[in-house]
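Lecture notes, part 5. Sequence design as translation. It can be helpful to think of inverse folding as translation between two languages: the language of shapes and the language of residues. The source text, in structure tokens, appears below.
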């Protein structure tokens, strides 16, 4: 069945007056330094066995001392640009999704703009934690569909190693650093993002947060001493919310496209915890070989997670041009999102 036959619903096609939003290319970057579970055992009271069975994570990448979120973002962007055959001068807009910007301001997107030399581009950050890359994709798509811009660079990039509490075994074992990027363009011959749905629940904001450093609790010697500039998480509650929100976002995205899960070649979920991925994909009745998992190598890289996974899935030929993929994410906010893309 051709895609045109599958996507009868014009809204689902995101096909507005002949305009579609194609994902021309993707790219990613992870730092060289690998930190294994054995390395974690030397820092906190944990074991490889606990981390592996509770999360599925075996190792994570940690940025070098002088390597910041914007550096990783620029490297991922350059890989995506090379593959897309897009020059810096062609980029109209840069959106960086991150919860670990280089600085409170200016935006990391502006720093990336300078690093890649995209002088014409507008640039801004968005913050939707682990859901950020799909949020950025949906925002970028709106600019393409409205004919405001022709080429949008979206990036999910994180240096979570700079905000985790390396003394807290509940959280420090879970996270890693990295970046993933995609080039969005209108291409008359190709689809890309078919639908995306996003959601949020600010009533549960405090389940997963970094309390200090903003206008509520500016940095003081006391706030640093109290550990308020580290990521804090109620793991159990976050877990429950993640499974439910990812399930309903995925179901809604499929419904909007009028397809069922058997038409999806690959599910690419947020890489936070193997047990969350299994719970969601079992409920969606997805076969294990239809699910892309790389959290064993990288841990949870928040906004970069699904972007790195999409890039690896493409590089490993798990997705061929024309295949349908379901991306589904969840993060602090709380936020969640799902997208159906035709690669
Ligand atoms: N090593 C050994 N023991 C540990 C460790 C560790 N690294 N961490 C916690 N424990 C202990 C706890 O202290 C607890 O011990 P206790 O029973 O004596 O108190 C025990 O293990 C069980 O802890 P739980 O919290 O019940 O473990 P759980 O099975 O819930 O797993 C986890 C914890 C992995 C954090 C899980 O809850 C999870 O993945 N939550 C969701 C995370 C997530 O999805 N985040 C989403 C987005 S992240 C973002 O937006 C930035």
């Amino acid at each position: 069945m051709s895609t045109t036959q599958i996507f009868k619903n014009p809204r689902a096609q995101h096909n507005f007056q002949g305009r579609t939003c194609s994902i021309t290319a993707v790219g990613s970057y992870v730092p060289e330094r690998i930190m294994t579970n054995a390395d974690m055992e030397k820092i906190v009271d944990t074991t490889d066995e606990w981390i592996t069975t509770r999360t599925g994570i075996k190792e994570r990448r940690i940025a070098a001392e002088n390597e910041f979120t914007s550096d990783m973002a620029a490297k991922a962007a350059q890989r995506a640009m090379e593959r897309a055959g897009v020059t810096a001068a062609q980029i109209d807009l840069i959106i960086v999704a991150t919860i670990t910007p280089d600085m409170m301001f200016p935006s990391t997107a502006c720093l990336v703009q300078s690093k890649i030399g995209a002088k014409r581009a507008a640039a801004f950050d968005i913050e939707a934690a682990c859901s950020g890359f799909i949020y950025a994709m949906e925002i970028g798509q709106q600019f393409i569909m409205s004919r405001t811009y022709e080429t949008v660079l979206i990036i999910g990039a994180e240096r979570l190693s700079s905000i985790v509490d390396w003394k807290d075994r509940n959280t420090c074992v879970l996270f890693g650093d990295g970046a993933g990027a995609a080039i969005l363009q209108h291409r008359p011959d190709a689809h890309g993002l078919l639908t995306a749905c996003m959601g949020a629940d600010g009533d549960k904001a405090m389940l997963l947060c970094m309390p200090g450093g903003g206008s509520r609790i500016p940095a003081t010697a006391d706030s640093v001493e109290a550990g308020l500039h580290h990521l804090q998480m109620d793991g159990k509650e976050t877990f429950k919310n993640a499974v439910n929100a990812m399930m309903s976002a995925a179901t809604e995205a499929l419904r909007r496209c009028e397809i069922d899960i058997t038409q999806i070649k690959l599910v690419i979920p947020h890489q936070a915890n193997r047990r969350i991925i299994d719970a969601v994909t079992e409920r969606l009745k997805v076969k294990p070989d239809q699910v892309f998992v790389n959290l064993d190598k990288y841990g949870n890289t928040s906004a970069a997670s699904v972007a790195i996974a999409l890039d690896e899935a493409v590089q490993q030929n798990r997705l061929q041009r024309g295949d349908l993929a379901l991306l589904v994410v969840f993060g602090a906010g709380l936020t969640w999102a799902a997208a159906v893309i035709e690669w």
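The translated text above is only one of many valid answers, since several sequences can fold into similar shapes. Confidence is low (pLDDT under 50) at residues 1-13.
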